[in-house]
Design a protein that fits this description.
Elements lengths: L36 H16 L7 H4 L2 H13 L3 H8 L4 H17 L8 H12 L6
Helix pairs in contact: 1-3, 3-4
């Protein structure tokens, strides 16, 4: 039974009456968050460390996350030095790209059940992990 179907709501007495079936409670819900520039700096540094300095291959789960990339983009937009960061991140970074390629290759080699990936899939994974930097 679809919990968002209004006609089914009367047939489920255990359902929370405050439950809302709309985008306010879903993954696409937006809520205002107010951060100081210090908090923005800390968040940005943590994300950049996770993506480009953390050696653990398990960090790739987060490094390529579209949701965390979206956070990075939004944080960059409101950062006091956002224009500088946009300029910096608009240029390929060979050191970071080499680091990411090596980390991805280690991750693929560590898989218990290796998956076949096309070159296009590997390129997309690299692109997501490299955000906000372009690939050379």
């Amino acid at each position: 039974m679809n919990n968002c179907d209004e006609s089914s709501r009367t047939h489920e007495p255990y359902e929370d009456p405050d439950h809302q079936c709309n985008n306010e409670t879903g993954i696409d819900a937006t809520k205002p968050v107010y951060l100081s520039q210090g908090e923005i700096n800390a968040l940005q540094k943590a994300l950049l460390f996770l993506k480009f300095e953390c050696e653990e291959t398990d960090s790739l789960l987060y490094a390529g996350s579209p949701l965390l990339n979206s956070v990075m983009e939004k944080v960059q937009e409101v950062h006091v030095f956002g224009a500088y960061a946009k300029d910096l991140y608009s240029r390929p970074n060979e050191r970071i790209e080499t680091f990411m390629r090596d980390k991805l290759e280690r991750s693929y080699a560590e898989e218990l059940a290796p998956r076949e990936r096309t070159e296009e899939q590997k390129a997309e994974i690299l692109r997501c992990c490299m955000y906000p930097y372009p690939i050379k």
